[in-house]
């Protein structure tokens, strides 16, 4: 079963917290033994950087979350952070509430403006009296990969658009675009690019008469074509022939059905109509944006089960 985005994040956080637990506990014990000698604490932090290879900063706070060491970085000591009051920072909330160890939610750091995690470990005496806290900051970009790439669940996602556009929906009407006037040859050409020339993701902008495509031969770039190019079969010459990929989720013989449904949605009503539609044959998702600015993302096979009455009957939810 495909896990949700939140489940994937929670699982990754659990892995990271487990990975950090032993090293931070040992380092906190070393800080306890050096307490409250600033120089001795900073020497222990320097040793700690070698024990935590992905750590960006280490520092020690007193029991009120005021910093009593410099920041220790890979480049050495950063003394300007000594005396800093961190008590209002969100990543201290759990520790100040009594947690012995905590791992923050990701946040944007104040200085580098980058996604960061902070781990906090309580520093305690042998009999459990709180002395202060050990802080460790981690740049998300520098953390090791601990799981497979997140894969988005394949279910219908519905997103509301601009309220101003929705409010004016019944004061507008579809105007024939150049793509509308040439829609059949355009759709035939797009189908040919997908099934025979390596296009794996195509987005048709019906109102502005253009298309954006991504191809197997050049997957990191997208190509934009206006209506004149989309009306000319010679466009296929610019893209080398490519067999339909075996890993595609969308069957080759159903690509035409998806595109023809785009056409039906484009002309289904003069007020509620399709502005743009996309198809990705690898994740099997269809993307739709309507005149009310509502957007939908749904599996291709579910998309093909919806008739026009479904879309027109859900005007308020589109």
Topology:
Layout: H1 5-34, H2 38-51, E1 57-62, E2 71-73, E3 76-78, H3 93-96, E4 101-103, E5 107-108, E6 115-124, E7 130-139, E8 157-159, H4 163-167, H5 178-181, H6 183-196, E9 199-205, E10 210-215, E11 218-226, H7 227-230, H8 255-266, E12 274-280, E13 285-290, E14 295-299, H9 300-305, H10 308-312
Helix pairs in contact: 1-2, 6-8
Plain-language structure description:
- The chain is elongated and about 80 Å long.
- The two termini are 28 Å apart.
- The chain has ten helices and 14 strands.
- It is of the alpha+beta class and 318 residues long.
- Helix 1 (5-34) crosses helix 2 and helix 6 (183-196) packs antiparallel against helix 8.
- The protein has helices spanning 5-34, 38-51, 93-96, 163-167, 178-181, 183-196, 227-230, 255-266, 300-305, 308-312, and strands spanning 57-62, 71-73, 76-78, 101-103, 107-108, 115-124, 130-139, 157-159, 199-205, 210-215, 218-226, 274-280, 285-290, 295-299.
- The model has no long low-confidence stretch (mean pLDDT 86).
- A seven-stranded antiparallel sheet has the order 8-14-13-12-9-10-11. Strands 1, 4, 5, 6 and 7 form a five-stranded antiparallel sheet that branches.
- A hairpin with a 4-residue loop joins strand 12 (274-280) and strand 13 (285-290).
- It folds into two domains: 5-142, 2-Layer Sandwich (Beta-Lactamase); 157-317, no CATH class.
């Amino acid at each position: 079963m495909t896990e949700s985005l939140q489940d994937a994040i929670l699982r990754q956080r659990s892995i990271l917290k487990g990975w950090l637990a032993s090293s931070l506990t040992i380092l906190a014990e070393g800080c306890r033994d050096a307490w409250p000698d600033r120089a001795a604490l900073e020497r222990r932090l320097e040793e700690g950087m070698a024990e935590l290879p992905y750590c960006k900063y280490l520092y020690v706070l007193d029991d009120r979350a005021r910093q009593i060491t410099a920041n220790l970085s890979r480049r050495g000591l950063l003394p300007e952070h000594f005396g800093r009051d961190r008590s209002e920072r969100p990543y201290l909330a759990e520790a100040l509430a009594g947690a012995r160890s905590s791992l923050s939610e990701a946040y944007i750091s104040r200085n580098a403006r980058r996604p960061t995690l902070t781990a906090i470990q309580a520093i305690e005496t042998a009999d459990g009296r709180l002395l202060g806290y050990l802080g460790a900051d981690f740049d998300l970009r520098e953390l090791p990969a601990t799981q497979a790439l997140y894969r988005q669940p394949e279910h219908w996602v519905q997103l509301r658009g601009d309220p101003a556009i929705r409010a004016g929906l019944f004061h507008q009407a579809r105007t024939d675009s150049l793509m509308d006037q040439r829609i059949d040859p355009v759709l035939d050409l797009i189908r040919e690019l997908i099934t025979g020339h390596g296009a794996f993701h195509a987005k048709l902008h019906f109102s502005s008469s253009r298309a954006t495509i991504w191809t197997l031969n050049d997957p990191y770039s997208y190509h934009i074509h206006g209506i004149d190019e989309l009306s000319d079969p010679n466009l296929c010459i610019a893209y080398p022939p490519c067999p339909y990929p075996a890993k595609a989720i969308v069957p080759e013989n159903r690509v035409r059905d998806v595109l023809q449904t785009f056409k039906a949605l484009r002309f289904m009503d003069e007020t509620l109509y399709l502005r743009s539609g996309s198809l990705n044959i690898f994740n099997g998702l269809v993307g739709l944006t309507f005149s009310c600015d509502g957007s939908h993302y749904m599996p291709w096979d579910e998309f093909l089960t919806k008739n026009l009455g479904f879309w027109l009957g859900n005007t308020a939810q589109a």
